[in-house]
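Re: export button greyed out
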Amino acid sequence: MMKKGLIISVSGPSGVGKGTVLAQIRKDNPGFGQSVSVTTRGPREGEKEGREYFFRSKDEFMKLVEEKEILEYDEYVGNFYGTPATPLFAMSDGGTDVLLDLTIAGSMALKEKFEQAVTVFLLPPSFDELRRRLEGRGTESQDIVDKRLLQSREEIVHADSFDYVVTNETVEQAAGDIEAIIRAEKLRYARNKGIEEAL
Amino acid sequence: MMKKGLIISVSGPSGVGKGTVLAQIRKDNPGFGQSVSVTTRGPREGEKEGREYFFRSKDEFMKLVEEKEILEYDEYVGNFYGTPATPLFAMSDGGTDVLLDLTIAGSMALKEKFEQAVTVFLLPPSFDELRRRLEGRGTESQDIVDKRLLQSREEIVHADSFDYVVTNETVEQAAGDIEAIIRAEKLRYARNKGIEEAL
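Workaround output, generated via the alternate export path:
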């Protein structure tokens, strides 16, 4: 019985510390797959189709967006960058667990397209703490901090569309919670159908 | 927001090693609640209603069985012993996590009565290994071992009615798997409704 890999995505409001938590999980689990983006910019020296990026024209890219093949995308200096769904399913079919760093909208699109995907919403312990973290970076003006906090308050209402909510008190605890979710999800009967007959 | 305790039950075929795995989890988590049985035998010196047992007459007991308040029961030297549901819900409402050692039928009855309960089916790594474990005890005749193995094969088909399947390769791994399931289940959004508003 070839077991499919788990597809799990983590999202959260602006400033919650998602990047640090995901880096910790990847450090603990170097075998996890991650997404390769589709881009409309041309390949650079040494870049290989499907390794650094999937390279597509703008027309092709927008067609993928229309087909909902691209879960989320963004524009950066005139080029589009998006997360395609099919390569994730191919990795999962090959038995690799895939850990994704997606926007809130991206996780919601993933879940809609692929119900077996597991989505995690990362929460701050409190908005006071979120403010402290944003201010603590010292890189942004008070104005920007206020705007990001307001944005976070708006984003946080989408937690109810996610499978799990993890509060980021510390990196170790949040990474540990997500690792427990991954371990548990792989034990669900629905992901192990027929295991009793295989015995 | 007062959080309810999780109700989780572990079942498995004859000889799988459920008792040892549960003892390990209880050792790691001394705060977990457990069920108090209902019995038709009279209280002994020092036994207190609701602590060692709930003491009921045979008529009362059979009425509880009819009402499906008793999830599973057994007879021992002329007296009945059963697991009642309501005290489990009371413990959970009080915020205590409840870990239950139930028969396969008991877990299925629990899930039917209370959908939010989490059920785990413990599997042996293989039937050869199950045979070795049963024979290794050295306390039972070959005839009894054969009967228990046959019983296990029949019991194992019910795994598909459970939420999770855990293979008992080692006590540490199986206990760790179930502890991950407990940690993860407590993070499900469905068990944390409104957490984002509470922020």
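The CA atoms of residues 111 and 117 of chain A lie 6 Å apart. The button fix ships in the next patch.
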